[in-house]
Design brief:
The protein is mainly α and about 140 residues long. The chain is built from seven helices and no strands. The two termini are about 25 Å apart.
């Protein structure tokens, strides 16, 4: 079973106790809006109030803190992260191509010394290696 976020856990336990957000908020000394923010993982309860919250929800503080962080990676793919990853790989490939074309053009014009050519080609190869490593990491 996948761990829940703290907010999901608070909502589930509150509903099991047949409490409304207003009921829980009154018991905790906060507004129902604050409870709503906790449940949507927009904020978290104050650390000093966790023992009281755990008691009201019928769990230990340890059980409450076993919740998964809202930003923690889940088994689902993040579309924004995948787009950024694809863009980074594309940039690395473009840099590699630019290094190769640049060295070729400068060599034809006899405007580059061999040491600098090898450095530029090394940068290009490093970029290609990084894209290959990233692709292997997905498998």
């Amino acid at each position: 079973m996948e761990r829940q976020t703290l907010g999901t856990m608070i909502r589930t336990l509150r509903q099991e106790k047949q409490m409304t957000q207003l009921d829980l908020g009154r018991e905790m000394g906060v507004t129902d809006k604050a409870v709503s923010k906790w449940e949507r993982d927009l904020s978290v309860p104050d650390v000093s109030s966790l023992p009281k919250l755990a008691g009201l929800l019928g769990v230990s503080v340890d059980e409450l803190l076993q919740a998964r962080a809202a930003g923690e990676q889940s088994t689902e793919r993040n579309p924004s992260l995948e787009k950024a990853s694809a863009l980074i790989k594309l940039v690395f490939k473009a840099v590699a191509l630019a290094m190769g074309v640049g060295v070729t053009a400068l060599s034809i014009m006899d405007e580059i010394d061999p040491r600098n050519a090898f450095i530029l080609l090394g940068i290009g190869l490093a970029c290609l290696a990084l894209t290959q490593i990233a692709d292997e990491g997905k498998e």
